[in-house]
Amino acid sequence: MSSAIVFTEYGGPEVLRLVDAEPPAPAAGQVRIRVHAAGLQPADSLLRSGRFRTFMPARFPQRVGNELAGVVEAVGPDVDGWQIGAAVLGPAAAPGAHAEYALADAAQLVAKPADLPWSQAGALSASGQTAATCLFDLGIGEGGGNGEGVGKNIGEGDTVLIHGAAGGVGSMAVQIAAARGARVIGTASERNHEFLRDLGAVPVVYGPGLAERVRQALGAAAGSTPVDAAFDTAGTDDALSASVELVADRSRIGTVAAAADVERYGIRRLSTRRSAEQLRSLVALTEAGRLKVSVQQTFTLEQAVEAYKELDGGHVRGKLVFVMP
Ligand SMILES: NC(=O)c1ccc[n+]([C@@H]2O[C@H](COP(=O)([O-])OP(=O)(O)OC[C@H]3O[C@@H](n4cnc5c(N)ncnc54)[C@H](OP(=O)(O)O)[C@@H]3O)[C@@H](O)[C@H]2O)c1
After folding, report:
1. Is the pLDDT of residue 149 over 70?
2. Which residues form the Enoyl reductase (ER) domain (predicted)?
3. Do 23 and 118 lie in a common domain?
4. Ligand 1 pocket mutation, candidates 130, 191, 213, criterion most atoms within 8 A of CB
5. Residue-level pLDDT at 158
6. What's the pLDDT score for residue 155?
7. What are the contacts of 141-149 at 24+ separation with CB within 8 A?
8. Ligand 1 atom closest to Cα of 270?
9. Checking CA distances to 279, which of 114, 172, 211, 307 falls within 20 to 30 Å?
10. In this structure, are 26 and 57 located in the same domain?
């Protein structure tokens, strides 16, 4: 038997339970992983709370967790390239990474570098692939998975605004955009400004008056549009209205957090795409020292309720991660 976090009814973090469960059996194309670390993301809470129920209904007892790092422990039929004992990272095949054992699609996994700490490896794939995909779709960088995107790559001296820059997606987007040569403005509360500077962004406080503060930070004239692209992970009206004031081309404004507002603002609804190719390029950035997964706090599986309460508070700096002994 092994431990897994599950919920058997929709609700707040308190509906989560750590239960004994059979390790899942890998189907064709899958491997079973002994999980060493697994990041949390808001989507895990949306599944648990029932807000995802129309397009992704829970199947009780429902497991949670979308990203992991661990060691291949069993290999299903038709799997090429992975053998028992391989250290890997990537997405879980279905929610279930917050457990001692989880399944993953072999084709989505990449090798974990030996010197990348488990806690960082287990928290890279979901937020990292969202950041990379969305920046690509806004014309920044390479490796957008299936190759879609507007194809207007940003270069040295171009400027990108990232809303929610201290969060899981935002903190990786800041670093990826900076690594691609962009000048990055990031929004966060004051307490995260030193953190943003360390990541490579010019920090600006969010809230009313944001557009003017961004212009001041850039030394730009009142009423000007000095930002080339804006990526919103915060989903607030302040973020979206500042974006349309600051960016002339609305096809280069996108959100992952305010799907209901995209038509009103005439901006793009962005979403993640996963590919091992894209994930490998993120791992390469970590190896080059250009991308660091900032881990605010680690938790054991026994601390699931505490971990999810922290996530649901909406002010995580970087990532929260379950680590398994
Ligand atoms: N569609 C997709 O494919 C997809 C994929 C991944 C994520 N998402 C969505 O993207 C959003 C962000 O995800 P995440 O993992 O980055 O979340 P997260 O890590 O929980 O974000 C927390 C961050 O949000 C910041 N924040 C809170 N209120 C803010 C505001 N009004 N303005 C700017 N920043 C604010 C906080 O900074 P302070 O503490 O400084 O306030 C904190 O650092 C979520 O809505 C998530 O569901 C969508």
Report:
1. no
2. 11-322
3. yes
4. 130
5. 79
6. 55
7. 141/176, 141/177, 141/180, 142/281, 143/277, 143/278, 143/281, 144/273, 144/278, 145/273, 145/274, 145/275, 145/277, 145/278, 146/273, 146/275, 148/273
8. 1
9. 307
10. yes
Backbone dihedral region for residue 217 (phi beyond 0: left; psi -120 to 50: alpha; all else: beta): alpha
Looking at residue 163, which CATH number applies to its domain? 3.40.50.720
- Ligand 1 centre to CA of 57 (Å) is 23
In which residue are the tokens 């190719």 written? 277
Give tens-digit pLDDT for 62-115.
Answer: 999 999 999 999 999 999 999 999 999 999 999 999 999 999 999 999 999 999
Domain that holds residue 63: 2-124+293-323
Among the listed residues 114, 117, 121, the one whose alpha carbon sits nearest the alpha carbon of residue 90? 121
- pLDDT of 154 over the 80 cut: no
- What's the mean pLDDT in 269-283? 94
Q: Which of 256, 312, 317 to mutate to test the pocket of ligand 1 (most atoms within 8 A of CB)?
A: 256
Q: Is residue 282 part of a domain?
A: no
Do 88 and 43 lie in one domain? The reply is: yes
Cα–Cα distances in Å, from 193 out to 5, 14, 173, 234, 311?
34, 32, 16, 16, 20
Q: Indicate whether 224 belongs to any domain.
A: yes
Helix axes 210-218, 237-246, angle to 10 degrees: 50
Q: Is pLDDT at 51 greater than 80 in this prediction?
A: yes
Q: Judge if the beta carbon of residue 163 lies within 6 A of ligand 1.
A: yes
Residue 257 in contact with ligand 1 by CB distance below 6 A? yes
* Cβ-proximal residues to 285 (8 Å cutoff; 6+ apart), any chain: 175, 176, 179, 291
pLDDT (0 to 100) of residue 146:
36
The kind and range of the H/E element at 91 are: strand 87-91
204 shares a domain with 108: no
